[in-house]
Amino acid sequence: QLQLVESGGGLVTPGGSLRLSCAASGATLDDYAVGWFRQAPGKAREGVSCISSGVDGTYYADSVKGRFTISRDNAKNTVYLQMNSLQPEDTAIYYCAAPVYCRSIYYSGPYEADYWGQGTQVTVSS
Asked: Which residues contact 11 (CB under 8 A, 6 or more apart)?
């Protein structure tokens, strides 16, 4: 069965960049629509971005559109989230999940998926 592991989080200053990875094993990730979600301290989990299976379409929350880019590397069975122009409000634990109904990124939840990673911490602070 599918297993997901996030990596790439860390501490950056405002305006900085990070590239998160969601590495899959046990199945071909290209068969799944994959979403990125985040949860800040004391806040509910929110949808960030999603990439569809098959012919790839991408989806972004308004709060990150123009700053974040989701992509796949099928040879590495990995989905990435490139995060640019990071701000303190982006501080959260970031999770990847599959399969995802990508349009759910535009909603407040629930976010239904069979498989979730363990999360990776992103902290943006001066």
From this structure: 123, 124, 125
pLDDT per residue, tens digit, the chain (126 aa), is 999 999 999 999 999 999 999 999 999 999 999 999 999 999 999 999 999 997 779 999 999 999 999 999 999 999 999 999 999 999 999 999 999 999 999 998 889 999 999 999 999 999
Q: Is 110 exposed, middle or buried (0-12, 13-18, 19+ CB in 10 A)?
A: exposed
Which residue has tokens 């012919």?
55
Separation of alpha carbons 126 and 124, rounded Å: 7
In 10 A of CB 46, how many CB atoms? 17
Residue carrying structure tokens 């363990």: 118
